[in-house]
Write a structure and sequence with these properties.
The chain has four helices and no strands. The protein has 139 residues and is mainly α. The two termini are 15 Å apart.
Length: 139
């Protein structure tokens, strides 16, 4: 899903030669992306669970904030399909929040095997979400 849109801290180019204003959604996704990189590396190490849980909780906060924000890619969607597309994005983000909550719960129980499996599931969902909701020239 959309967990981790890589965004620069500055305005980014979108392939058309024009810079855009940095959006609140990009801020949320950037914060999630930074935490995600650390989570993926630390999830297999039970000695890092406390810090990893804090990172996951931060990601949950940013993912929840992202639900009501609108991706820039909506500009590419035909007018009659925008509402359905946006609802799909919101559903994907809510599902992402649930997966992150499951990840935090697994880490709290020191179940790092389950946590590692959830990281893989979240990563797959992230890739699918980026294909559908992220501007394609933003990779």
């Amino acid at each position: 899903m959309l967990v981790l849109l890589p965004c620069s801290a500055l305005a980014a180019s979108h392939g058309d030669g024009e810079d855009h204003e940095h959006t609140p959604l990009e801020d949320e996704m950037d914060a999630m992306n930074k935490a995600w990189r650390k989570v993926r590396r630390a999830v297999a190490d039970p000695s890092k669970n406390e810090a990893t849980i804090e990172l996951v909780m931060s990601m949950i906060k940013h993912a929840e904030a992202s639900v009501e924000l609108t991706p820039m890619r909506i500009e590419e969607i035909p007018e009659g399909q925008k509402d359905k597309w946006l609802k799909g994005y919101q559903k994907a983000m809510k599902e992402n929040v649930k997966l992150l909550e499951q990840l935090a719960a697994a880490l709290k129980k020191d179940n790092n095997d389950k946590a590692s499996a959830l990281v893989a599931k979240i990563n797959d969902a992230r890739k699918q979400g980026h294909k559908k909701y992220k501007p394609q020239d933003d990779e």
